[in-house]
Write a structure and sequence with these properties.
mainly alpha, Ankyrin_rpt, Ankyrin repeat protein, Ankyrin_rpt-contain_sf
């Protein structure tokens, strides 16, 4: 009985210790405390990689632009493309955390937001989605153009789940700088998927309806708008 009690007590202490380590390493990922992070990760070994994945620490560090912490986590075999809620690079792109995004892309992070799924949404979609301010979005797109241009040319015309390309989003949010940079990356003026509406139509639509509504509903909103315009033209034709 005593041996069994000692065994459970040791396990309980171990679980309590692991819980404390998890909480501490999460705090380190948020605030970038490298020294403490190194100590905790060494204490977690050989379970460090498992804990990093379960706690989504690379994504957490990316959201807080903690580039040095990302490097440390990757040294402990973190999965750079762990994508339960989107990859760390997708988080860095969406929130325009340029230091983190640069580190991840230099380490060959996926250009897709959810590489383990069928989605073709890219980091370019995340940057141009209107999540961050237009200035931050444009500065982040500048980073892509200046340092990673050759990587993104093959995905620049990908459609997201709403049928939009990154160029469509840049037009919807009226970001001339992003439009210019995407064209330099090789973007083409293809129609919204499933429609005949190109960027010219989107620009007109964005003058009349909230950009967030168009971006949120994608091809459904574009198709509805197109139908309304065509109906309006037919009515005018009958009246004239």
């Amino acid at each position: 009985m005593t041996l069994m009690s000692d065994y459970y007590a040791q396990n309980l202490r171990r679980e309590s210790f692991m819980d404390e380590c998890r909480a501490t390493i999460r705090a380190c990922a948020q605030d970038g405390t490298i020294a403490a992070g190194r100590v905790i990760l060494s204490q977690l070994s050989p379970d460090a990689g498992k804990v990093i994945g379960e706690e989504e620490l690379v994504r957490l560090a990316a959201e807080n632009d903690q580039s040095e912490m990302i490097e440390l986590l990757l040294q402990h075999r973190a999965n750079i493309d762990h994508d339960t809620r989107g990859t760390p690079a997708a988080a860095a792109a969406a929130f325009c955390k340029r230091k983190a995004l640069g580190v991840l892309l230099r380490r060959d992070a996926s250009l897709l937001s959810l590489p383990s799924t069928q989605s073709e949404t890219t980091l370019l979609h995340e940057i141009t989605a209107g999540t961050s301010s237009q200035m931050e979005s444009e500065l982040t797109m500048n980073l892509i153009k200046e340092e990673f241009c050759n990587r993104f040319d093959r995905v620049v015309d990908n459609f997201d789940d709403r049928g939009l390309t990154a160029l469509h989003q840049a037009v919807i949010w009226s970001s001339g700088a992003n439009v210019e940079n995407l064209l330099l990356l090789g973007a083409t003026d293809c129609p919204v998927r499933g429609t005949t509406v190109t960027t010219t139509g989107l620009a007109q639509l964005a003058l009349e309806q909230p950009p967030w509504l168009i971006a949120q509903q994608g091809h459904r909103r574009v198709e509805k708008y197109k139908h309304e315009v065509e109906t309006y033209i037919r009515v005018l034709g009958r009246l004239s």
